[in-house]
């Protein structure tokens, strides 16, 4: 899985249109609907991408009955054309998967997303290249072709770590490859791309295609942000905090199970999504499970300094219209002790 598309600069406009069109009745109806099949409340959670090991805890919580224990019948759905952020912020669904950069960008544009949990404690993304391209540090990007999705954020990230290493982004050929497969693009058009190692990097290992990996967190603490995160919207928190509480109790159980039982958790994901490659899911889950919690006191814990550091970095790079109100962007209040 290559790095997913960054925050759309048109998202605020899209959300205004959605709010006008649907009147926030999506999540509101789900939250307020007291008719429960088999005493369970139907709730949707939307993924940010096609199912992968970032999402395993949700599938475990559903399969193991953790959601049902909390009175919920949870449906895991794929994002629509506007993406998961639009669906959650507009109230179409109450919960979804996002990334810290999208929440940060969106909130400064009036988008009411709130992060409930860090799915992974540290940023496992970075710039990957085949070893034969001899890209061993950011300065080595010079003279090479980069494949991305044309976001100002990705260019700012690349520029930032290149400058730390004494390089210049002006010497990089920037190509927009959209959602093209990394392994196809790297053989055809580009020398390096931004990936999540837990999926694309592990797939490269299985293909015996050796990579040089340049992790963002190795070059700046400000780039060790939370990606992905589990989000809701302000209205759901205000109207039904109990729903948020029980959803997070069950989700936490799902991810903690995946931490303790990676192979069994991988089997749950494969059962739910049988089209996934079994070898890749197994290897990815074993690599990723310890990183869900890592050095945090509990799964999902978010630190204010991580949110502040990244928003400061975005402000420094001219990527925010106004400063982020950090304390409203995330909450740990719904994580079980």
Describe the largest sheet: 5 strands, mixed
The CATH H-level homologous superfamily of the largest domain: Periplasmic binding protein-like II
Treating each run of at least 4 consecutive H or I residues as one helix, how many helices? 15
Strand order, largest beta sheet: 2-1-3-10-4
Spatial extent as radius of gyration: 20 Å
GO biological process, one term: thiamine biosynthetic process
Signal peptide: 1-27
Keywords: Signal
Pfam families: NMT1 (PF09084)
Descriptive overview:
- This protein is of the alpha/beta class.
- It has two domains: 11-121 and 226-329, Periplasmic binding protein-like II (D-Maltodextrin-Binding Protein, domain 2, 3-Layer(aba) Sandwich), CATH 3.40.190; 125-223, D-Maltodextrin-Binding Protein, domain 2 (3-Layer(aba) Sandwich), CATH 3.40.190.
- Helices cover 43% and strands 15% of the residues.
- The strands form two sheets. The chain has a five-stranded mixed beta sheet, sandwiched between helices. It has a five-stranded mixed beta sheet with strand order 7-6-8-5-9, with helices on one face.
- Helix 7 (152-164) links the parallel strand 6 and strand 7.
- Residues 4-10 and 12-37 have low confidence and may be disordered.
- This is ABC-type nitrate/sulfonate/bicarbonate transport system substrate-binding protein.
């Amino acid at each position: 899985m290559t790095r997913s598309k960054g925050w759309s600069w048109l998202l605020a406009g899209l959300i205004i249109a959605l709010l006008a069109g649907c009147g926030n009745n999506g999540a509101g109806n789900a939250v307020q609907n007291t008719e429960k099949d088999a005493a369970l409340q139907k709730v949707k959670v939307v993924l940010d991408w096609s199912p992968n090991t970032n999402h395993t805890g949700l599938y475990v919580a559903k399969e193991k009955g953790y959601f049902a224990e909390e009175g919920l019948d949870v449906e895991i759905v794929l994002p629509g054309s506007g993406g998961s952020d639009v669906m959650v912020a507009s109230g179409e669904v109450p919960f979804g998967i996002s990334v810290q950069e999208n929440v940060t960008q969106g909130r400064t544009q009036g988008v009411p997303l709130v992060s409930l949990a860090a799915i992974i404690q540290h940023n496992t993304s970075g710039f990957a290249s085949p070893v034969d391209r001899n890209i061993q540090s950011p300065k080595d990007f010079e003279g090479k072709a980069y494949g991305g999705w044309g976001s100002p954020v990705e260019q700012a990230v690349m520029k930032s770590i290149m400058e730390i290493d004494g390089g210049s982004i002006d010497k990089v050929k920037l190509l927009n490859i959209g959602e093209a497969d990394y392994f196809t693009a790297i053989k055809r058009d580009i020398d390096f791309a931004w990936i999540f190692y837990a999926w694309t990097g592990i797939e490269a290992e299985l293909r015996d295609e050796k990579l040089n990996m340049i992790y963002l967190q190795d070059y700046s603490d400000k780039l060790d942000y939370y990606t992905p995160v589990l989000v809701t919207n302000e209205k759901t928190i205000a109207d039904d905090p109990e729903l948020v509480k029980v959803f997070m109790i069950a989700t936490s159980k799902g991810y903690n199970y995946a931490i303790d039982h990676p192979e069994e958790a991988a089997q749950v994901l494969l059962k739910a999504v049988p089209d996934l490659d079994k070898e890749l899911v197994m290897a990815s889950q074993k690599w990723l499970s310890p990183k869900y919690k890592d050095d945090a006191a509990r799964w999902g814990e978010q630190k204010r300094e991580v949110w502040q550091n990244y928003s400061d970095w975005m402000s420094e790079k001219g990527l925010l219209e106004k400063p982020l109100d950090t304390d409203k962007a995330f909450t740990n209040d719904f994580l079980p002790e």
